[in-house]
């Protein structure tokens, strides 16, 4: 049994045998590059130069070799053909960008959910630590208790010293 090419998605059904089997992803990448080029200043400058040369040659070569006389019907046909191909290419590029944005949005949403869950977990842990620290004896509390015990021992020693008849050394 023949294996599917590595770049063909298995979850997309094939629409039967075609005489021209074009990978939709590679065609979309190429059309996206073309659409990006159509939106650059470089393309506009090249097209402007070509139109000026086209018109100039057709006006200068009036009697000699004029392939597109004054109403420039051939030039208009070229622009129409270009527009007929450019519009779908731009839409295809825009659809691919929408798909990328959708994937990026899904990733951002899942990252935000993970961050929120982590933050909630840390908040619960911090609250548990605060409760635990509230129950733990602090340094000042221990010092106070030690001072109280020391004072009590001094009192007991003072009470005991006269009863023994000895004086306590300090």
Describe the structure.
This protein has 170 residues and is mainly α. It has a domain of 94 residues. 73% of the residues lie in helices and 0% in strands. The protein contains four helices and no strands. Helix 1 packs across helix 3. The relative contact order is 0.05. Keywords: Membrane, Transmembrane, Transmembrane helix. It holds the Pfam family DUF1003. InterPro entries: DUF1003.
Secondary structural class: mainly alpha
Largest sheet: none
Helix content: over 70%
Tell me the distance between the termini. 102 Å
Radius of gyration (Å) = 43 Å
Average pLDDT, rounded to a whole number, is 82
The H-and-E topology, N to C, reads as HHHH
Q: What shape does the CA trace take?
A: rod-shaped
Number of helices: 4
Question: Per DSSP, what share of the residues sits in E-state strands of 2 or more residues?
Answer: under 5%
List the helices and strands and how they pair.
Blueprint: H1 24-38, H2 41-60, H3 73-135, H4 139-164
Helix pairs in contact: 1-3
Structure, briefly:
The chain has a domain at 24-117. The protein is 73% helix and 0% strand.
Key terms:
mainly alpha, rod-shaped, transmembrane helix, membrane, DUF1003 domain-containing protein
């Amino acid at each position: 049994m023949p294996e599917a090419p590595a770049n063909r998605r298995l979850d997309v059904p094939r629409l039967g045998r075609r005489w021209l089997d074009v990978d939709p992803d590679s065609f979309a990448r190429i059309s996206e590059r073309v659409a990006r080029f159509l939106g650059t200043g470089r393309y506009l400058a090249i097209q402007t130069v070509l139109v000026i040369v086209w018109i100039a040659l057709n006006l200068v070569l009036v009697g000699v070799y004029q392939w597109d006389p004054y109403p420039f019907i051939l030039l208009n046909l070229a622009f129409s053909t270009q527009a007929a191909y450019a519009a779908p290419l731009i839409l295809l590029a825009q659809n691919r960008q929408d798909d990328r944005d959708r994937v990026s949005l899904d990733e951002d949403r899942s990252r935000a959910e993970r961050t929120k869950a982590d933050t909630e977990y840390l908040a619960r842990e911090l609250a548990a630590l605060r409760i635990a620290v509230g129950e733990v004896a602090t340094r000042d509390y221990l010092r106070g208790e030690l001072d109280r015990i020391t004072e009590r021992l001094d009192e007991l020693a003072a009470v005991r010293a006269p009863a023994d008849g000895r004086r306590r050394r300090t």
